[in-house]
Amino acid sequence: MAKLTKDQVLKLAALSRLQLTEDEVVQFQDELSSILEYVEQLESVDVTGLKPATQVGGLQDVMRPDEVVSYQAQPEELRKVPPQSEGNYIKVGRMIG
Amino acid sequence: MSVAVHQWPSIADIAAQVADGSVTARENVEKALQLIAETNEEYNCIIATTEKRALNRADSIDADIADGKPAGKLAGVPFIAKDNYLAFGAETTAGSNILKGFTAPYQSTVIERLEAEGAICVAKANLDAFAHGGSTENSDFGVTKNPHDISRVPGGSSGGSAAAMALGLTPFTLGSDTGGSIRQPASFCGVVGFKPSYGRTSRSGVVAMASSTDVMGPLTSTIADSELVMSVIAGDDPLDSTTMTSEFTVQEQATLKGKTVGVIKEYFASGLDAGVRTQVEEAIDRMKAAGATIKEVSLPTLDAALAVYYIVVPAELSSNLARHDGQRFEFSAKDASSLEESYTKTRSHGFGAEAKRRIMIGTHVLSSGYYDAYYRKAQLVRAKIIKEFAEAFESVDMLVGPVAPTTAFKIGENEDPLSMYLQDVMTVGVSLAGLPAISLPCGMSSSLPVGLQVIGKYGDDAGVLAFSRACEELEGAA
């Protein structure tokens, strides 16, 4: 693959919710391109007959009853974590225009 | 060669001393805090201590023992946790500015289990921010220095935990390993670092990096100490649905006689430092002399493991780090005029360069149009690596090789991100397959420690430790 363009880096930054400085754009354009170039060696690996690995341990889904259980984290401690809260609610900025 | 500033007794002996009252938990905690205070300016192992809470817990353990209440298996044993473990008594930063001001509302399962047996967390160790790196140079709290040579890195990402262990600040420390982050710093600092099978220890309450390979494990000075800590922290946890239900039981018998040991051919290719090669080969010769059968094993797809890792892991961590949006944690841009702007400003100011790089790589490989070429292909090659390991274990009991291609490198030596990633080349394959593996000190090269990597089949954690205990006895005799 050719080197990432400046526009591609800016698009990735936007999707990642990152705002880059001009220096960062130049730096990441080189660095991300060299990482992507390195990982492209996988193209030549023969994977005939294999299925994508989704886990390593052979675990199976288990069901549990949908019950409320008490846990060490108490609501009064949890609501101290976000920058804004009111009562037992977490406050966030307005989402709908 | 030991660089320890203090020699602790074995963990079992410390707990026995506290239980019989010959040493108090408070004395142990005060000693650990004193050692941290005396060394931190020079080595920067520690981000914060949990002094007040640790001393209170020590006093309550001492009071319980004086009252004749039963003492735990780890009564009064101080330890240091990597700062991505949620713990009471100090902030949990994961080495990143973006978590500044975050006080954990609950503790990680591993720490809860240790505390239930009387162990006491005294401090939080430095790490590459969000465990992204192999040197601690990516920490927003400055690099940790290698106790064997302060111009060199301690490895990473659990570099603070490994350096603290080499200095003997506490009898054990905790690390996390996603692609080598316990084994490589243990190798660089000359301590024992055990990465359990994926799912053997709970991930609950540890800041997530890559959910499909993250594992918690101990750094210790001996295998017996590692086994004792593992016997406390291992096990099924309802808060981590990937934990395995099978039991972890320490194997008393440790022998090399009759064992078949596979030497991983690909790990001895060009690029391996000559001094590391010599020490590892001599360790393998000692196994042979002790009665093990040695055979060369080839796992050809291991050469592609690093490329798989740097697709799968950024994909997972870019998703995990989406939660740092300025709404859920204390660190939040104050001058944002919209929610979108709050996300972007918070993340742009809070994340360091390495997290930004990995988030963008992860976003790229998961994006529509690229998913099949990168992520799906990586998971297919990962399946091939898992299969090759499983096939190798049909004819050998353990696989061995080096932990890293070199000994500890100089601070600033690997500034280019890709050359830093290449440090992980001998550890990531094991992580992608979820296997248990250890770094065991096996000698010195130019006054720097070298680690021997012992890898077992999935779930054979106790077997890897018992095998390593037999090797450790040989190393002691060497």
Question: Overview of this structure, please?
Answer:
The complex is a heterodimer of chains A (97) and B (478). Chain A is mostly helical and 97 residues long. Chain A has a domain at 6-44: Histone, subunit A, CATH 1.10.20. Chain A has helices at residues 6-15, 22-39, 75-78; strands spanning 85-86, 89-90. A two-stranded antiparallel sheet of chain A has the order 1-2. The radius of gyration of chain A is 23 Å and the shape is flat. Chain B has 478 residues and is of the alpha/beta class. Helices cover 39% and strands 13% of the residues of chain B. Chains A and B meet through helix 1 and helix 2 of A and helix 9, helix 10, helix 11, helix 12 and helix 13 of B.
Radius of gyration of chain B: 21 Å
Secondary-structure class of chain A: mainly alpha
How far is the N terminus from the C terminus of chain B? 13 Å
Number of helices of chain A: 3
- Helix-strand category of chain B: alpha/beta
How many strands of chain A? 2
The CATH homologous superfamily of the domain at 11-233 in chain B is named Amidase signature (AS) domain
Weakly predicted, low-confidence segments of chain A: none
- The run of helices and strands of chain B is HHEHEHEHEHEEHEHEHHHHEHHEEH
Order of strands across the biggest sheet of chain A?
A: 1-2
Q: What is the count of DSSP helices of chain B, taking H or I runs of 4+ residues?
A: 15
Order of helices and strands of chain A: HHHEE
Give average pLDDT of chain B, whole number: 96
Q: Strand percentage of chain B, roughly?
A: 5-15%
Rg of chain A over CA atoms, rounded to whole Å, is 23 Å
Largest interface: A-B, 51 and 71 residues
In CATH, what is the class of the domain at 6-44 in chain A? Answer: Mainly Alpha
Helix content of chain A: 25-40%
The coarse overall form of chain B would be: globular
Outline type of chain A: flat
Strand order of the largest sheet of chain B: 1-3-2-4-6-5-10-11-9-7-8
